[in-house]
Specification:
The protein contains twelve helices and twelve strands. By secondary structure, it is α/β, with parallel strands linked by helices. The strands form two sheets. Strands 2-1-3-4-5-11 form a six-stranded parallel β-sheet, with helices on both faces. Helix 9 links the parallel strand 6 and strand 7.
């Protein structure tokens, strides 16, 4: 690859015109090869395909549908689960910000599957999205380095990018976990359990570490039998709480590290005679109307989406400075479920 080609790749994504110029053929000829049409000699086809690979050209698969709006009218958002209200609130904030700038948002869900995330991002890039906001499920995001170098703006939200230097907006998970556990400690609890998502999930891992660190700072060790990890669904979290309550020395309080785990814990607690204090990470609808109302760590998914969109648009507006790493503080909302005498007769 020539010096000029390398310079081209570093400042913008290559187009069909670049491929045509490099191969000394018409754009129509390149288009025939890209779309699989006949009429091009095998030698020319091979040369064009080789050049496409060398330049890293990606076909704009939505161009025919978006010729009035243009290929840069869409922002791609990759999240963990579209059905999760937390991400619904985050996406709504992104959409509101993008709408004010004349762009629409295309949201997709990886379901915590790294291979699915890779496929979805490839598809979004093929559609020439203007930029990406990614809640990554991948341990190594270095596969995005080429696209970043070619000028595709990417912002990691909720979870940091790994192996790439990108803008990111994270929540203060350690602070939130500390406030939750300290609240339970102030209520007199010493047998505090934790129910969390998969260990490889950044938010779960950092919140559990915050739980451990806070206990240690208060002269307590996290008892292994009180820790339940890898509980991804509300049903799995409910099973975990049933397991905890069946212990010979059960916990007096539980800290759940996301809204799904909290819902699962509430289902397990409902209707039991004993008492169990509960503090959950992520606020959720009707949490204040349950009996008792649920104490939560609120972390502002709307603020997360808004700031991620703001970072992305600053790149689209020409900002070429160093990557930014912003953190949104958490806030403990004290309600009834975190108290020593919290009733387990929770109405769901």
């Amino acid at each position: 690859m020539s010096r000029n080609d390398d310079t081209l790749g570093s400042r913008r994504r290559p187009t069909m015109k670049d491929v045509a110029q490099r191969c000394d053929v018409s754009i129509k000829t390149v288009s025939r090869v890209v779309t699989g049409q006949a009429g091009t000699s095998p030698a020319t086809t091979e040369r064009i395909l080789r050049t496409i690979e060398e330049l890293g050209f990606r076909r704009n698969r939505l161009a025919s549908d978006l010729r009035h709006a243009g290929p840069s009218s869409i922002l791609g958002v990759v999240i963990e689960d579209l059905s999760n209200p937390f991400y619904g609130d985050m996406i709504r904030a992104v959409e509101e910000y993008a709408r004010g700038r004349g762009l629409m948002v295309l949201s997709v869900s990886s379901d915590e599957d790294p291979a699915r995330e890779h496929d979805l991002i490839r598809e979004l890039i093929a559609r020439q999205v203007a930029g990406l906001i990614v809640v990554t499920a991948t341990a190594d995001n270095a596969y995005l380095e080429t696209e970043i170098r070619r000028g595709l703006p990417i912002v990691f939200a909720d979870r940091p990018g790994n192996g790439v230097d990108c803008d990111e907006v994270l929540l203060d998970n350690a602070q939130g976990a500390r406030e939750a556990v300290e609240h339970l400690l102030r209520q007199g609890h010493r047998r505090i359990s934790v129910v969390a998502d998969y260990e490889h999930v950044y938010t779960a891992r950092t919140r559990v570490q915050g739980y451990r660190d806070t206990l240690l700072a208060n002269g307590l060790q996290a008892a292994p039998e009180l820790i339940r990890l890898g509980r991804h669904t509300a049903e799995e979290a409910s099973d975990a709480v049933h397991e905890l309550l069946a212990l010979s020395d059960p916990p007096t309080a539980v800290f759940t590290t996301n809204n799904r785990s909290t819902v699962g814990a509430l289902r397990a607690i409902h209707g039991r005679d004993a008492q169990l204090a509960l503090v959950g990470f992520d606020d959720f609808e009707l949490a204040d109307l349950l009996e008792p109302p649920v104490t939560v760590v609120s972390n502002g998914p709307e603020a997360l989406g808004r700031l991620a969109a703001k970072q992305l648009f600053s790149r689209l507006d020409g900002y070429h400075g160093p990557s930014r790493h912003d953190t949104i503080p958490s806030r403990l909302i004290v309600r009834g479920s975190g108290s020593t005498g919290a009733s387990r007769q929770l109405a769901l």
